[in-house]
Amino acid sequence: MKKLLLVFVVGSCLVFYGISTFFLPEQMSISQGIEINASSAKVFELVNNLHLQDSWSPWKELDPTIKNEFSGPERGVGAKLQWQSDNSGSGSMEIIEVVPGHIVQMALDFGSMGKANSSWTFVPGSKGSTKVSWSFVSASTKNPFARVANLLIKPSLEETYVKGLQNLKAAAENF
What we know:
This protein is of the alpha+beta class. The protein is built from four helices and seven strands. It has helices spanning 2-21, 40-48, 58-62, 144-173; strands spanning 29-36, 67-71, 80-85, 89-99, 103-109, 115-124, 130-138. The chain has a seven-stranded antiparallel β-sheet, with helices on one face. The radius of gyration is 20 Å and the shape is elongated. It starts with a helix and ends with a helix.
């Protein structure tokens, strides 16, 4: 009887888990912002020029084994950064749209882990400052395990974006 009850409880939990994953969002999206005491032209250049990314990127701090390879133009549409890491795997980012001084959009490819888009906006603030927003939207997925993974990774990614913006602020204010 106890064994049957245990099987029923475990089975019920698995069924509940399986059904509940279909109610999780198909995409993960985050957005973080910061005000930087530097002109939008300075801040924009640090993001639009992928070769300058090591001066503020949070990823290099988190994983010093990352090796970057650049292709295409140094900055703007078509600029591409591919990374390889012992700890974080491999992937790429490519700038796909630019509105000079205002917007940078990137396509991210994490290989078997999926694709996403990252967007940057730069809005002039008061006294020469710049309000910066950094957003991330993962590709849609019907996979229930990927939906759960998105839910689990989101807080860590939000923290990393905050750290990246703080690093960008320090770099821009000393650029």
